[in-house]
Known about the structure:
five-stranded parallel sheet; 13 helices; elongated; disordered N terminus
Amino acid sequence: PTSVLASSRITxxxxxxxESYNRExxxxxxxxxxxxxxxxILEDLDIELSxxxxxxxxxxKLGLISTTSKIVKLNDRTEADRVDGFxxxxxxxxxxxxxxxxxxxxFNVPMISYACTLDSLSNKDTxxxxxxxxxxxxxxxxxxxxxxxFMKWERIGIIYRNINLYEEAAAKFKKTLEQTFGNTTSSDxxxxxxxxxxxxWYYDENQDDGKVDMKRAANDILNECKDEVRVFxxxxxxxxxxxxxxxxSELESFPFAECAFITLEVTSTTVDNSTREYTRGLLSLAQxxxxxxxxxxxxxxxxxxxxxxxxxxDVYSATLYDSLLTYAMAAKHIKEEYYTAHSDASDEDxxxxxxxxxxxxxxxxxxxxxxxxFQGASGMVKFDSNAxxxxxIEVFQAQVDATxxxxxxxxxxxxxxxxxxxxxxxxxxxxxxxGSANIPxxxxxxxxxxxxxxxxxxGNHHPGDDPHRSSPHCHPHxxxxxxxxxxxxxxxx
Length: 493
């Protein structure tokens, strides 16, 4: 009952695993974001959370030391340093090790990340106390099939960096695409679908000639694959993807203008006027940008706190807020359920029992999977059975504004709330890297039915195109620009 709950406030200490990259003081927006979340949680949910900021610098070793120091001291009863749970970290490589440790017997501490997307973190046998307010990188595989079907692409190349995050993503994309389209033919795909040119883009960026090695490895792949495929999925960090596209555009032997490139995690901070010669036409799939009243309140609070009316927050500022909110929502749920079931017990006994349940990482993560959808700063928040945020996707395209001659990210696709499939935004117009539109009819939603397309959609042969330049492997799909797929920027790296 509310009257009982109001008289029994529970208090927890949360470790905020933050990547400041050794900048001091802390990145200025982190503190006001979490302070507003903490204040609203106290007022709305009657749960008091204190915060301990913990540096990881996106470094696996430092992150592991920082995390274990807090939970080992908890077992040693060092009350001043102990934490009851974690929010963060933001880097998948730190998450992979830290989440493994906190889930082990003897610790069992909850961890809710706001940005880690590594696919294997969904494995609850290994990461039983881990949850996240972003979707996994593998969750982009289904929207990817939407785009492939929409574009009628029969051949896809997948190129991925030698990094665990992208190795897992490449395998998930390949498996999902082949399961969806493999061994079938249709009027859309008369030759059937196939993943070809499945290559690791390997180089050591720490070597003295890392940049040279990076270009050489990219050019080797492009030359090897140029006669097999015209559509490439590039899985790498955003700056690396842009470099790959630059290499492709400069390689004389490679038919850059005939190809589409699809990738993850390139944003408006990476695609700018200096890169538009090779990024124009880029389609970026990302978690929906927040635009609700809670996010606007957060932006205003941060600007006031920093005395800076120009301060900007991205979706990960919102998912950081929501990670703390998720912890509190789960704690509130545990409290209400327990008090209702033990209404005859003393308040002291109930409070002690609830406190222990909330500190139990396995317990609270299970509750997170059962939470009803709630409004967060990043939009509606709902979790699947692995405690991963259920993705809601928007797709943007890098387009050059004819008036300002500057490149902007323009929304092209949205996620249909009922079907979960990508839906072309009303009035959306593609702009490929040669400046042409050639768009599909904007009533297309992939739901297993034929999509109606305009005459000049990128997968069709265009009047005036040189037929001898169309690869037979593309049948005769010749996307005229750069197609790009992005997850929510789920790495702070």
